[in-house]
Amino acid sequence: YITGHKLNLNDPVRYTEKLQHLRLFEYANNSVVSKCASRDGARKYLEESGLKKILIKSYGVYDRFDDIDFNKLPSQFVIKCTHACGYNKIVLNKSSLDIKRLRKQFNKWLKTDYGKKTCEPHYSHIKPRIIIEEYIGQLNSLPLEYKIHVFNGKAKSMYVVSGRGKDIRYNNYYIDWAPFDGSQFNGWKKSDKPLKKPENWKEMVNIAEKLGEKFPFVRVDLYNIEGKIYFSEMTFTPAKGTLKLDNDKCDFEMGEWLDISKYLKH
After folding, report:
1. What is the rounded CA–CA span in Å between residue 143 and residue 162?
2. CA angle 84, 47, 70 (to 5 degrees)
């Protein structure tokens, strides 16, 4: 309905079709996927993978909002739920924070079965908690986010998110930084100015591939602040797999990169 294409789950060819198959069958009850999709579980997974050095500083993980002692937190921080995407609040000035309103919002989020809401079952296995991390952006701008797509352990493409919170833009590239404009999706626009490839890009790709080596597909999101790499999150079913690409041929091209043959029943 969303993409306008008939969905073939028995013999998927498109990238978006294969994501649907993984979403409904392979990832639905995969405990490692659920662990890595969670905000707190992913941190443990990185520690186990020897990548603790790229974790953003954590101020604590809480089962209840009222367990948080805001007096002990710095002026700026990021507070988010562990079991969902988009359930977060960037705090740039703690003194102006409406705690009562924030409590109401987070208590609502904590009661939400995000996996059921989005039809992404792997989120339903994550314990809803709250995690608070250091804010690594500038006062007036959020950092660029590099979203690397890893297919069967190999990074093949990516996109960079800029202007978040103001004028958000998505720039799509092959992993060698060649433009991959046709993979732009859902009507997003790219930046008016070209983006510079980080000097330690190879290291970022190696990190993404290390984190993605055990999965048929995962998107690994990283930050790069003045040459220092930070981990953001791991996403297994981007946009629930309902991506409407600018160039339909790219759906087939990326589909060729993703081998899920061993998960299909014929």
Report:
1. 7
2. 55
pTM equals 0.95
Helices and strands (DSSP H and E) totals, the chain: 7, 9
Q: Which amino acid is at 63?
A: D
- At 256, list the tokens: 């060729």
Q: Letter for the amino acid at 182?
A: G
The pLDDT profile of the chain, 266 residues, written as one tens digit per residue, is 888 899 999 999 999 999 999 999 999 999 999 999 999 999 999 999 999 999 999 999 999 999 999 999 999 999 999 999 999 999 999 999 999 999 999 999 999 999 999 999 999 999 999 999 999 988 778 899 999 999 999 999 999 999 887 889 999 999 999 999 999 888 889 898 889 999 999 999 999 999 999 999 999 999 999 999 999 999 999 999 999 999 999 999 999 999 999 999 75
Give the whole-angstrom CA distance, residue 247 versus residue 131. 38
